[in-house]
Design brief:
Oligomer: single chain
Shape: flat
Structural class: alpha+beta
Number of domains: 2
Strand content: 25-35%
CATH superfamily of the largest domain: ATPase, nucleotide binding domain
CATH topology of the largest domain: Nucleotidyltransferase, domain 5
Length: 311
């Protein structure tokens, strides 16, 4: 979260698997329930309804503005950032993002969706919040993660944003995005998890919990037998190979460009890629896109102030 004059810029990366802010990452599952569960702390109350936050992951949905849950998740994300500063009231600028290929088509609808209530009162984790949403700014995800150092990218570089539901890729040449070479494939880390789940059952006749799979993918290992690890590793390596096959099809060449990996899929490349990582740069910060949204939004607000416009 960044403060600009009397406003707070809060970057939110509305991922298909996790919601990320500059300082938080949590699963995007939402379960509406009018009964307040005793053992669940992540409870959000809004407009007479109660929601359990962080309950697993949502299924993939291309048009987030058509899903009420993403609005609830936005409020939870704002509350987490405000709580870090011991704030319960604030004038908020939401800085969010959409997949690069869809950003121009969906931006207006997503802005309308997130800004539909100018004044919002809700409670989260038994704390009451009152926020004023003064603006909503939407930028391309993936791109935002490299914006802080984009001007230093010399020659030709490929950026690959490997998220839970999508793989977005594009090129930057001498700091400038090549707008005619942008791609998006519906091939995110969730597909890898599903492959592992199915293959594991087929080979062992046992089910494996998604939490164990995710931990293995994130860390490259887990507290499980070597035989089980071998099954997961084999599928993960094949998935990463498929990712690179897609990047090659879109023009990637490891000999003439650097590859920057952003998003949660970076850990899979780090642990399961069979090739050389010498010319691959993995941005480990899962919150990099959310921080990038804040970075770009602050630049825009400062430019508006400099030009004498109200911000």
């Amino acid at each position: 979260m960044k403060q600009f004059k009397d406003k707070f810029i809060i970057g939110i990366d509305h991922g298909y698997g996790n919601i990320k802010t500059a300082n938080h990452c949590f699963p995007n599952g939402v379960d509406r329930s009018d009964i307040n569960p005793v053992l669940i702390k992540d409870i959000l109350s809004f407009e007479g309804h109660t929601y359990q936050i962080c309950q697993g992951h949502k299924t993939f949905l291309a048009d987030k503005q058509n899903d009420e849950d993403y609005y609830i998740l936005t409020l939870a994300a704002i509350a987490m950032e405000l709580n870090d500063m011991n704030l319960t009231e604030a004038d908020v600028v939401i800085a969010a993002g959409l997949p690069l290929k869809w950003a121009s088509l969906q931006r207006a609808d997503f802005v309308e969706y997130l800004s539909r209530n100018e004044e919002v009162r809700f409670s989260f984790r038994n704390v009451d919040y009152h926020i004023h949403i003064s603006d909503v700014l939407v930028y391309p995800q993936g791109y935002s993660a490299v914006v802080p150092f984009k001007s230093s990218l010399r020659d030709l570089n490929m950026i690959a944003d490997i998220g839970n539901g999508t793989l977005s890729s594009f090129f930057i040449a001498d700091g400038k995005v090549q707008k005619d070479n942008m791609y998006m494939d519906l091939f995110g880390t969730q597909q890898c998890i599903e492959r592992i789940r199915d293959t594991f059952f087929a080979q062992t006749k046992r089910k494996i919990n998604d939490y164990t799979i995710e931990s293995f993918l994130r860390n490259g290992k887990a507290n499980i037998p070597d035989s089980d690890s071998a099954v997961i590793r084999s599928v993960a390596e094949k998935y990463v190979k498929d990712i690179f096959d897609m990047l090659y099809a879109h023009g990637y060449d490891e000999n003439t460009m650097l590859l920057y990996i952003v998003g949660g899929g970076g850990c899979l490349v780090k642990h399961f890629y069979k090739g050389s990582l010498d010319r691959i740069r993995i941005i480990d910060d899962i919150c990099a896109s959310a921080k990038g949204y804040e970075y770009i939004a602050e630049i825009k607000l400062r430019a508006a102030m400099k030009n004498g416009r109200e911000v």
